[in-house]
Design a protein that fits this description.
It is a single chain. This protein is an alpha/beta fold and about 375 residues long. The chain is built from eleven helices and 18 strands. The strands form four sheets. It has a ten-stranded mixed β-sheet, with helices on both faces. Strands 12-13-15-16 form a four-stranded mixed β-sheet. A two-stranded antiparallel sheet has the order 3-4. It is globular and about 60 Å long. The structure holds inosinic acid and magnesium ion. Magnesium ion (MG) binds next to loops.
Length: about 375
């Protein structure tokens, strides 16, 4: 069984939490695109961790290996920091991590260029865009170049057990293993299919897996993760965005502050036309809806059912006019005996499935593993 877990909105959907939970049933967790602009929040034994580059592996299980694929742009110093931190709590994890030598490297000047040039996009300033730009300009620096130059950071990573091997060197292992591909950002931030130019520069759709060289892999399921409301960091169109007090209260309830930058996230209601667009563009065949706990206690929950014009191009999100419906809310998802609340949640889920035309296979209602339920 091979699966992908992709972001179905603008990132921060809870992919890290879901990946962490499912990872024990897989042999490899593979990042294939993006870089340290990602912020994947994970809770292990009640302690909060944020991974920017490392896959969201449950390190309490020894058998899981991690791979950083060639579609990524890697800040090697950041990687060293993350591996060192992981080693403190989970000694030996370094030796279970592999880096594709064909991946590109983020240089200090890339971060400077981001700060100087990409304010209007709301970049995370991690040097992602400029690193990808150099790659496309055919003047990028790859991990293999750094290895050949005897970079001391590569040596430090190797000393921690990190191995530098490409997809073809590991192909036999991959072919006889269960693979979980962990997306970064979200389909609406994808360079090709997101809301250009307000996008990141990595691949957030299923295409990114193949672009990173995994052409021999058959994916049994491609999950799209979406929150039961919507958030966005950075600039660009956001059709269901809330403002003022309403926004502030949802932001507080959901603790919607960027895991990477600490910025307050923009917040709004669930946007079904956007969800549907992202499923179609991203190759999603199953949905996972998260954060049901955050909306607990609302009488009615607004949901954008349609736009005046159904989006078929990213252009259609500019000045989109959503039409809302109000669905019945639930009281308390923490109380398992509150059958009425669960009934309302499953009705809400049925409605999403019907509107989007993609099954919802899982939901999440909290940060612990037992808050993830099969639908
Ligand atoms: P960049 O990838 O840092 O250049 O940022 C480009 C846009 O994507 C900005 O609006 C960022 O806020 C957004 N972005 C990049 N990575 C993430 C992420 O992991 N979660 C949410 N937004 C992101
Ligand atoms: Mg995030």
């Amino acid at each position: 069984m091979n699966i992908a877990i992709l972001g179905n909105q603008w990132g921060d959907e809870g992919k890290g939490h879901i990946t962490h939970h499912l990872s024990k049933d897989y042999d490899w967790v593979i990042r294939f695109g993006g870089g340290a602009n990602a912020g994947h929040t994970i809770y292990r034994n009640g302690k909060k961790y944020v991974h920017n580059l490392l896959p969201s592996i449950d390190f309490t299980h020894d058998h899981i290996k991690g791979f950083l694929g060639s579609g990524m742009v890697l800040d090697l110093e950041q990687l060293l920091k993350e591996v060192s931190t992981a080693e403190q709590d989970f000694p030996g994890v370094g030796s279970k991590l592999y880096v594709d030598p064909d991946a590109f490297v983020v240089l200090p000047e890339h971060k400077e260029t981001d700060k100087a040039n990409n304010k209007h996009i709301g970049s995370t300033n991690r040097g992602i865009g400029p690193a990808y730009a150099d790659k496309v300009m055919r003047k990028g620096v790859r991990v293999i170049d750094r290895m050949n130059d005897g970079d001391p950071i590569i040596a430090s990573l190797s000393a921690l057990g990190v191995q530098f091997k490409g997809v073809l060197e590991l192909k036999e292992d991959f072919e006889s293993s269960r693979l979980l591909f962990e997306g970064a950002q979200g389909i609406l931030l994808d360079l090709n299919h997101g809301i250009y130019p307000y996008v990141s520069c990595g691949d957030a759709t299923v295409a990114g897996i193949y672009a990173a060289g995994f052409n021999f892999v058959k994916l049994d399921k491609v999950y799209g993760v979406a929150k039961v409301y919507t958030t966005k960091v950075g600039e660009g169109p956001f059709p269901t965005e809330l403002h003022g007090d309403e926004a502030e209260s949802l932001r507080k309830l959901g603790n919607e502050y960027g895991a990477t930058t600490g910025r307050p996230r923009r917040v709004g209601w669930l946007d079904l036309p956007a969800l549907k667009y992202a499923c179609a563009k991203g190759g999603i065949n199953s949905l996972i809806i998260t954060k049901f706990d955050i909306l607990s206690g609302m009488e009615e929950i607004p949901v954008a059912e349609t736009y005046e014009k159904t989006p078929t191009s990213s252009k259609d999100f500019f000045n989109a006019k959503p039409n809302y419906v109000k669905l019945k809310g639930w009281k308390d998802v923490k109380d398992y005996n509150d059958f009425d609340s669960y009934d309302k949640i499953w009705k809400f889920v049925d409605y999403i499935e019907e509107q989007v035309g993609v099954p919802v296979d899982m939901i999440s209602k909290g940060t612990s593993t037992r808050d993830i339920l099969e639908a």
